[in-house]
Amino acid sequence: MWPGVSTETACCKEIGVKRSGGWRATSVLSLLFMLMLPAVSAADGQFEVISASSRLENEYWLVDARLELILSREAIEALENGVTLRIQMQYEVNRHHRFWVDQTISDRNQNIELQYLSLSQRYVVRDLTRDKQASYATLYSALRSLSQIKDFRFVKASKLKADTRYWMSMRVVLDQEELPGPLQMLAFWRGDFSLESEWYKWIPR
């Protein structure tokens, strides 16, 4: 559980109903219509890895990171109309080669689902990788919790040799493949859901 937040049984029950019920056709059409309208003064979304570091603990490299997560107008409208957004943190460790391309030693994804429950008016964050869940009263609070990565178990220490130079890197993306089919098509043509950060690199210490 994230610190300072509450989990609610009612939210969990509502999640089950929404996930199993699916979308009504009218909801899809109305949402697509809204998203096709031109944006007048909405700010663009942005994902950025501000800082990241790693440390060795109990035979694993753990990652701490600070992110900036700003959803686009279209992503917020989809979220508030029942679409579950999946945010993915992607991690890599690469072996440095002086005269050749770097070699990827290990990679891992951390999958987070963000969902808005209209009945309870709560924003639910589910960490599918670490099996954690929390709910928040505002979207700002939910995104703020996602922007702090702490103690993510990335790679086993035995995979990294002591006398070899490595780079670790991470980025954060909005996983468009998890969007409903009609929104995937719209996202492909317009790029409204194309949110991804640059790779942030550092040397493990």
Task: Describe the SSE topology.
Layout: H1 9-21, H2 25-36, E1 46-57, E2 60-70, H3 73-80, E3 85-95, E4 103-117, E5 122-127, E6 132-136, H4 139-146, E7 148-156, E8 166-174, H5 181-190, E9 200-202
Antiparallel strand pairs: 1-2, 2-7, 3-4, 3-8, 4-5, 5-6, 8-9
Any overview of this molecule?
- By secondary structure, the protein is α+β, with helices and mostly antiparallel strands.
- The chain has one domain.
- Helix content is 25%, strand content 40%.
- The chain is built from 5 helices and 9 strands.
- The strands form 2 sheets. Strands 6-5-4-3-8-9 form a 6-stranded antiparallel β-sheet.
- The longest helix is centred in the N-terminal third of the chain and has 13 residues.
- It is elongated.
Summing up helix and strand content along with how strands pair, one would put the structural category as: alpha+beta
Beta content = 35-45%
* Poorly predicted runs of 5 or more residues: 3-26, 32-43
Cα-atom radius of gyration: 19 Å
What count of helical segments does DSSP give? 5
Q: Summarize the biggest pleated sheet.
A: 6 strands, antiparallel
Ends distance: 28 Å
Shape designation: elongated
Order of helices and strands: HHEEHEEEEHEEHE
Strand order of the largest sheet: 6-5-4-3-8-9
Q: Can you count the beta strands? A: 9
The tally of domains stands at 1
Question: How much helicity do the residues have?
Answer: 10-25%
Mean pLDDT: 81
Quick synopsis:
The protein has one domain. 25% of the residues lie in helices and 40% in strands. It has a six-stranded antiparallel sheet with strand order 6-5-4-3-8-9.
